[in-house]
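queue> holo job accepted (calcium ion)
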Amino acid sequence: MKLKKFAAGVGLAATVLLGASMPASAGVTFFFPETTFEDDNNDWHFDTNGNGKIDIGERLVSVFELTKTANPFGAGSANIAPEELTGIIDAVVVAKIPGFVPGTFLFLFAPNATSPYVDGASGEIARTWLDATPDLDIPGQNCVSLADCVAKGSDGSVYMSGGFTGDNDEIFAFVGTDDPAVVAAAGAGIDMTAATFAFSMIVNNTGMDFGQVACSPNSLVPVAGDCNPFNGGTGDGLADIAGGGSIKGGAGLGNGAFGRSDFDFNVAPIPEPGSLALVGLALAGLGALGRRAKKA
Ligand SMILES: [Ca+2]
Ligand SMILES: [Ca+2]
Ligand SMILES: [Ca+2]
Ligand SMILES: [Ca+2]
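queue> job finished
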C-alpha cells in the first residue's frame, strides 16, 4: 500500500512537472518545457508598384488561426477550444536577394510601422486575439475577403504578440518566388516558399511567464548560433518565439489571398506559481510518506 501511495505521489509530481498544465486561459493548453502553436494562414500581398511581383517596400499580410497546441518533444496535443485564437501578421519587405535557383529570392521583412492591424511602430509583426465567440474558420475557408478575414481574426482580447525589439536573433524571412501568381496557382498542399522567424514577445496576456527557445538551426542557418546572419548583430541563438514553415499554394482561395501558409512556432512557458505550489504539495506528500515508511 505504501509503495502504491508513493508511486501515486511520484506520478502526480511527474504529471505536474512534465505534462500539460491547467490552461492559463480556458482554451489554451501549455506543454512544458516547450509548447508548439499550430496555425493555418491565408496570405495577401500588396503590390504597391503594380508589377505583379513582391518587391522591397511592399507588404505581406496574413490572417491566421491557431487551432491547437502540442508538445514538440513527445506525444500530446490539445485543440484550442471553446474560444478561438486568431491573429494577423503585417510586415514589409526590406531586402530581396536573388537566390541560387533562378527566379527565387531571399526576402527579409521588418515591422510595418503604419500597420492598421498590429502595433508596428513598437516593433510588432504578429498579434493574436482570444475570442470567446468563434467566427473564423481558416481551414474551412469561411472568410470571403481580407476585410472579412481581418474582422473575424482580430475580435476578442489581445492575447500575445511578437516582433522586433532589438534582439540580434530576430528575423522574419522567406525564400521563394517573387511571383504571387505562381503561388496562387499551386495546390493547397504544395510548399512554395520556406519561411523562418524569430520574434521577441511584446504583449503577453497569456497568464504565463516564458523563457526562450532555440531559433537555430533554421532554414537559413545550418548550425546553432545567431539566428539572423543578415542584420549585422550577433545573436545568442535564442528568442522568445521561434518558428518556421512554408507558404503553400493558393488554388481555390476565393478571398483574394495568394497563398496558405503554415508557420508553426514554439515558446517556452515556465510553470505558473499554482503548478509549482502543486509540485510543492506533491513533494511534501512524498516526504511525509517517506518519513512514515522509515518509521514502519
Ligand atoms: Ca510589386
Ligand atoms: Ca474571431
Ligand atoms: Ca544576427
Ligand atoms: Ca537572442
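queue> Helices lie at 2-18, 146-153, 180-185, 273-295.
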